[in-house]
Amino acid sequence: MPHPREETAGNLSSDDATLEKCLERNKTWADNIVQTGVLPNLFKNATKGQHPRIIWFGCCDSRVPETSLLDLLPGDVFVHRNIANNILNEDDSSQAAFTYALGHIHTLEHIIVCGHTKCGGVGGALADTLVTGNVKDADVEKLDVVTRWLLPLIKIRKNQEGIEGWDSKTEDQKMQIVIEENIKQGVDVAQRAVQKVFNEAPTSELKEHLKSVKVHGLCYDIANGTLKAVETVEELDAWTARRT
User: Fold this and answer.
1) What is the pLDDT of residues 132-166, one digit of tens each?
2) At CB < 8 A and 24+ separation, what contacts does 144-147 make?
């Protein structure tokens, strides 16, 4: 049976977006969770703490709701999202999420860095005309905050422009290349974060746990709702050996 909002998904009316309506829908949702008997203890169990197996680094895009597309529930996924799933070594927000989750949530087994098709952030990086030279030489003080945030993606684009055949690709092909290169960079940053927390781990038990954490680079296809693997999955020992 079709969902009652199938035809309006992604096009919520102003009337339905009011705080009053949001609170009303929330109460209906919470009541249904308990009263249908399918998950009667979901909220009770949530008060005992979180025990997710997955940490998800994704994009802010409203069309990519990680818990829904993985068919999971509240409490299953620890989440960090930003524009264009831009995972950076120098970004305190994502690094804090890594450090906290890996150091304090000892049930974590998988890190997922997920990009998606039709990404507006990647589209902005492809269309940018403000950064005319090398990204490292850009006068960041003169750039707006969004362009500054997209500089790593602009750098990916500029690097790709130097590869033979780039100009003959369609805009969709160029976008997908930058999307996937960004995912791969995010996977590397994630693995480095695991290594850093491992090096600073206060106990041998935590070190042993971190050795088994796997990092995955995925891309979500908005057109059909499916995920595909982009980057190789490696455990800490294998990743470290490859870089020494």
Assistant:
1) 878 887 888 888 999 999 999 999 999 999 999 99
2) 146/83
Contact (CB, 8 A) for 134 and 193: no
Distance CA 227, CA 58 (A): 13
d(CA 47, CA 127): 46
- Rounded to two decimals, what is the model's pTM? 0.91
Q: Which residue has the tokens 């930058």?
A: 178
Which residues, listed in sequence order, are joined to residue 54 by a DSSP beta bridge? 77, 110
DSSP, residue by residue, 165-207: TGGGS-HHHHHHHHHHHHHHHHHHHHHHHHHHHHHH-SSHHHH
Residue in this structure with the two tokens 């005992």, named with its chain if needed: 48
Q: How far is CA 28 from the centre of its chain?
A: 29
Gap between the Cα atoms of 233 and 229, Å rounded = 9
Strand-pair partners of 145: none
**DSSP code at position 102:** H
Q: Is the pLDDT of residue 241 over 90?
A: no
The type of residue at 110 is: H
How many other C-beta atoms lie within 10 A of the C-beta of residue 172?
Answer: 10
Tokens linked to 187? 């996977």
